[in-house]
């Protein structure tokens, strides 16, 4: 017996020997026990099946000819619930061996012709042990891989690089077994508070400087695993393959290939998950900066536009408050037409800024109390295009430039500046046109006194289908049934209004 070869190290493997010949089972038991295996003996084949069901065995040494059931029947029953056990059939004589077909079908790993010497059997058992060892490694690898991949989604809820490094350390301890580890994430380039993050276990705890040197080296390895001095280093890269850190492991025993593979898979998966998290948070930070800048620009511009608007109103005491009232009337019409809040907001802003282009018209023309020359009138008419030009500069006003451009168009196509007609004119501009005309008529001008409500209403009716969209005139005339209340509501827009203190 080659005790030296098999003795020791086999206690992790268990054998069940089954034979109705008690001497045979006892002999095999003592032989393989001496080789270091855990060995049980069973003489009843039916009881043997139950034993295997209840207890784990790695190898079954099974006699072929037995009563009440033969070896092949035992195998077929066992295979119903245990596909992993290695089975070696023992036969009394070559001629008594089961056909090769049966051996294949029942997944029997070998058969042995009984003799006084067990060398051949021992060789068979040794080859089983090798296979079982390999199977265990594969199974461990598979289980670890599954566990590892199942754990990756945890990274999606992580917010900081420190949390990411902690979770990686926790995972390494969990998946990679006995070893020392480190995780190094480089500075994210977003200021002092965002310097490198380092975590290390065992001897690595105090080796941050050495590790940051490894990080520099890993750049030369082009994303591959580095193996040196019993240490494995894997790059951590996001999905664009940009490397932002490394992780390392030094196993207590020699580095096995499956350990290296597991480590590499983990570094790739966790690396991509954390890399995406980092990209996302950097992007969020940049977006927030952009939003703040945009808000500041928007506020400045609104302030500037507001100042311009007040300047337009201030140019002529008689038109003061006009833009606010036009905006208010236009909103009332839009609301009565059942328009959306977005539409109402748009028409409110367009109403406020409809005459912004007048900023470019000379005071001498705007304040003239006699009638305008053709040339002067042409200059006043330019305020529509000028208004569009001023508002076009700002993205926030893109949706009202056309309304401002068209607020002097006429429904019959005889307006200016584009001479569009009917539905070609934006509806909001048609609404503002009615509101604008009504407020002009009911306000005092240098060259005439204001019209009464009835006179203004009569003018609107006269303009139906000519200057104005008839539907909109009808809607507005309905609203004007409550003119007294509306005037009270808008009193703040009149020059003589003084807020109560
Ligand atoms: Fe105008």
Structure description:
This protein is α/β, with parallel strands linked by helices and 501 residues long. The chain has 3 domains: 14-135, Response regulator (Rossmann fold, 3-Layer(aba) Sandwich), CATH 3.40.50.2300; 160-284, GAF domain (Beta-Lactamase), CATH 3.30.450.40; 316-493, Orthogonal Bundle (Hypothetical protein af1432), CATH 1.10.3210. The chain has helices at 3-6, 22-34, 45-54, 71-79, 100-105, 119-151, 161-176, 208-218, 257-315, 322-336, 341-353, 363-366, 374-381, 383-392, 401-405, 427-441, 453-463, 470-479, 483-489; strands at residues 14-18, 38-42, 59-63, 86-91, 110-113, 179-185, 197-200, 226-228, 231-237, 243-251. The strands form 2 sheets. A 5-stranded parallel sheet has the order 2-1-3-4-5, sandwiched between helices. Strand 8 (226-228) and strand 9 (231-237) form a beta hairpin. Helix 6 (119-151) packs parallel to helix 9, helix 7 (161-176) packs antiparallel against helix 9 and helix 10 packs antiparallel against helix 11. The termini are far apart. Fe (ii) ion (FE2) binds next to loops.
């Amino acid at each position: 017996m080659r005790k030296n070869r098999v003795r020791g190290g086999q206690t992790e493997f268990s054998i069940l020997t089954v034979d109705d010949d008690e001497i045979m089972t006892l002999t095999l038991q003592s032989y393989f026990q001496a080789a270091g295996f855990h060995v049980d003996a069973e003489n009843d084949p039916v009881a043997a099946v139950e034993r295997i069901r209840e207890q784990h065995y790695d190898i079954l040494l099974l006699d072929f000819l037995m009563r009440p059931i033969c070896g092949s029947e035992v195998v077929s029953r066992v295979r119903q619930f245990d596909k992993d056990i290695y089975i070696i059939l023992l036969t009394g004589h070559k001629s008594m061996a089961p056909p090769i077909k049966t051996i294949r079908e029942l997944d029997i790993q070998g058969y042995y012709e009984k003799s006084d010497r067990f060398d051949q059997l021992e060789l068979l058992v040794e080859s089983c042990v090798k296979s079982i060892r390999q199977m265990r490694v594969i199974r461990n690898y598979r289980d670890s891989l599954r566990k590892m991949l199942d754990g990756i989604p945890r990274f999606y809820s992580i917010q900081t690089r420190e949390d990411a490094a902690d979770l990686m350390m926790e995972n390494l301890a969990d998946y990679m077994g006995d070893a020392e580890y480190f995780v190094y994430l480089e500075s994210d380039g977003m200021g002092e508070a965002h310097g490198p993050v380092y975590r290390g276990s065992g001897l690595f705890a105090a080796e941050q400087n050495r590790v940051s040197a490894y990080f520099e080296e890993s750049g030369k390895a082009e994303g591959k695993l580095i193996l040196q001095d019993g240490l494995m280093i894997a790059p951590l890269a996001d999905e664009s393959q940009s490397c932002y850190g490394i992780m390392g492991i030094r196993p207590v025993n020699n580095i096995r290939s499956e350990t290296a593979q597991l480590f590499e898979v983990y570094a790739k998966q966790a690396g991509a998950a954390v890399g995406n998290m980092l990209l996302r948070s950097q992007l969020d930070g940049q977006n927030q900066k952009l939003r703040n800048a945009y808000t500041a620009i928007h506020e400045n511009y609104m302030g500037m536009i507001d100042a311009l608007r007040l300047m337009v109103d201030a140019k002529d005491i008689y038109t003061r408050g006009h833009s606010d009232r036009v905006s208010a009337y236009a909103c009332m019409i839009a609301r009565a037409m059942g328009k959306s809040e977005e539409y109402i907001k748009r028409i409110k802003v367009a109403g406020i800024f409809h005459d912004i282009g007048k900023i470019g018209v000379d005071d001498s023309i705007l304040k003239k109390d006699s009638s305008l020359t053709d040339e002067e009138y042409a200059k006043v008419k330019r305020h529509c295009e000028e208004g569009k030009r001023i508002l076009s500069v700002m993205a926030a006003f893109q949706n009202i430039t056309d309304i401002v451009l068209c607020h002097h168009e006429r429904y019959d196509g005889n307006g200016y500046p584009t001479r569009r007609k009917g539905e070609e004119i934006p509806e909001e501009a048609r609404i503002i046109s009615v509101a604008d005309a009504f407020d002009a008529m009911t306000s005092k001008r240098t060259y005439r006194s204001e019209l009464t409500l009835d006179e203004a209403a009569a003018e609107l009716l006269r303009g139906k289908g000519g200057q104005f969209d008839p539907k909109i005139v009808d809607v507005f005339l309905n609203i004007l049934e409550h003119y007294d209340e509306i005037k009270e509501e808008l009193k703040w827009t009149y020059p003589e209004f003084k807020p109560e203190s």
